[in-house]
Amino acid sequence: MSETPSTLSPHPFDVDTFLARPLVARVATTNASGAPTVRPVWFLWEEGVLWWITGEYAVMAQHLERDPRTAVVIDTCDLRRQEYLQVIMRGRAEVVPFDPALATRKLRRYLGEDESTWHPDFRHYADDARLVRLVPERTVVKDLSKALP
Fold first, then answer.
1. Does 149 fall in a domain?
2. What range defines the domain where residue 124 resides?
3. What sign results for the dihedral spanned by CA atoms 16, 44, 135, 142?
4. How distant, in Å, are the alpha carbons of 55, 107, 110, 113, 121 from that of 118?
5. 86 domain-assigned
6. Which pTM was predicted?
7. Domain total for the chain?
8. pLDDT, tens digit (0-9, with 9 covering 90-100), for 52-98
């Protein structure tokens, strides 16, 4: 296990390369009754900041306005290769104005470079689209992989 406050090195694997993969992050926030709420999100990791899209269609912006404390888990479970990597982050997330260029970079990771092949829902952003910005205050990185026989 490796842990650092707000920087992602040194670690048991290249965290930037890992977070460049089109993985799903599970984001935990706190709802109005104080209970944890977890949502899967596509994300973009750039220069020490984790980004994802939200909007009025989702309650996440309301949760973060009330309580910005956020936890995120990004991991793999590759049974064939016996790869089990984890990045766990905690910090205070903030909802910020939408940046179409940043959102497009994120979506290209998941949907490919050719935007003409994307579903229309991903080619046009809702008027209420926003970004969530998380600069991790604490990061835990684990490689629980097993050696193949």
1. no
2. 2-143
3. negative
4. 20, 9, 10, 9, 8
5. yes
6. 0.86
7. 1
8. 999 877 899 999 999 999 999 999 988 888 889 999 999 999 999 99
CATH code at position 15: 2.30.110.10
- For residue 75, tell me if it sits in a domain: yes
Please name the residues in contact with 95: beta carbons below 8 A apart, sequence gap of 6 or more.
Answer: 54, 61, 64, 65, 130, 131, 132, 133
Residue 111, phi-psi category: left (phi > 0), alpha (psi -120 to 50), beta (remainder): alpha
Q: Is residue 148 part of a domain?
A: no
Nearest to 122 by CA among 133, 110, 131: 110
d(CA 41, CA 29): 13
pLDDT in tens, 13-37: 899 999 999 999 999 999 999 999 9
pLDDT (tens digit per residue) in 119-138 = 888 877 767 789 999 999 99
